[in-house]
């Protein structure tokens, strides 16, 4: 059973045509009535869904904001059900003329020209754990299901021994940008 997204605080998103391009640091959210079933999943099989939480910059004040919605994974965030936007500082809310709206990821930085981003605070912790795990053992470590697809999209060059330390430093620096009380 899906949690009721309407009980959360924040304003519902009205985007109907937004797209997702997390590699560039932008996230779009598209409300849909039903999550698409992955290939091989039958109608009788229950699709694993959960309340997903994405840290973004508020389009109005550029402060810390969140998008919450029900989904099956972060890789396909354009298929979130009932996405809700909430800014930690201002009371800005999306309106009909904001369609489509692009949301910039709050935790994002560049390393050797490649965009490194984290969907939320938990994703940053998982990233650090993943990067600090020796490459030979990475396949044996179990990571949360929401982030598995994102781990597979990390640039191979960034996972090499040459840049791995720099990548961990960048993610830890992003962790320090978290606003207090959030």
Task: Summarize the SSE layout with pairings.
Layout: E1 11-12, E2 26-27, E3 50-57, E4 64-71, E5 81-87, E6 103-104, E7 107-111, E8 114-118, H1 121-132, H2 148-152, H3 156-159, H4 161-176
Antiparallel strand pairs: 1-5, 2-6, 3-4, 4-5, 7-8
Question: Can you tell me about this structure?
Answer:
- This protein is α+β, with helices and mostly antiparallel strands.
- The protein has 2 domains: 5-104, no CATH class; 107-176, no CATH class.
- The chain has 4 helices and 8 strands.
- Strand 3 (50-57) and strand 4 (64-71) form a beta hairpin.
- The model is unreliable at 1-6 (pLDDT under 50).
State the end-to-end distance: 27 Å
What order do the SSEs take from the amino end to the carboxyl end, as H and E?
EEEEEEEEHHHH
Fraction in beta strands:
15-25%
Low-pLDDT stretches are 1-6
Brief summary:
Helices cover 20% and strands 21% of the residues. The chain has four helices and eight strands.
Notable traits:
alpha+beta; globular; two-stranded antiparallel ribbon; 21% strand; disordered N terminus; single chain; 4 helices; four-stranded antiparallel β-sheet; 182 residues
């Amino acid at each position: 059973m899906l949690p009721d997204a309407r009980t959360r605080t924040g304003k519902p998103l009205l985007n109907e045509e937004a797209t997702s391009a997390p590699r560039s640091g932008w996230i779009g959210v598209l409300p849909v009535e039903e999550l698409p079933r992955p290939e091989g999943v039958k109608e009788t099989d229950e699709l694993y869904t959960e309340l997903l939480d994405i840290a973004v910059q508020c389009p109005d004040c550029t402060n810390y904001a969140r998008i919450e919605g029900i989904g099956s994974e972060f890789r396909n965030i354009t298929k979130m059900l009932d996405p809700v936007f909430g800014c930690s500082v201002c009371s800005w809310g999306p309106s009909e003329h904001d369609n489509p709206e692009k949301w910039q990821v709050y935790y994002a930085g560049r390393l050797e020209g490649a965009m490194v981003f984290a969907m939320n605070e938990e994703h940053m912790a998982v990233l650090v754990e993943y990067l600090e795990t020796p490459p030979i053992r990475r396949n044996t470590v179990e990571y949360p299901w929401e982030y598995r697809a994102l781990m597979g999209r990390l640039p191979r060059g960034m996972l090499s021994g040459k840049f791995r330390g720099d990548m961990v430093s960048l993610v830890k620096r992003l962790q320090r940008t978290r606003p207090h009380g959030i």
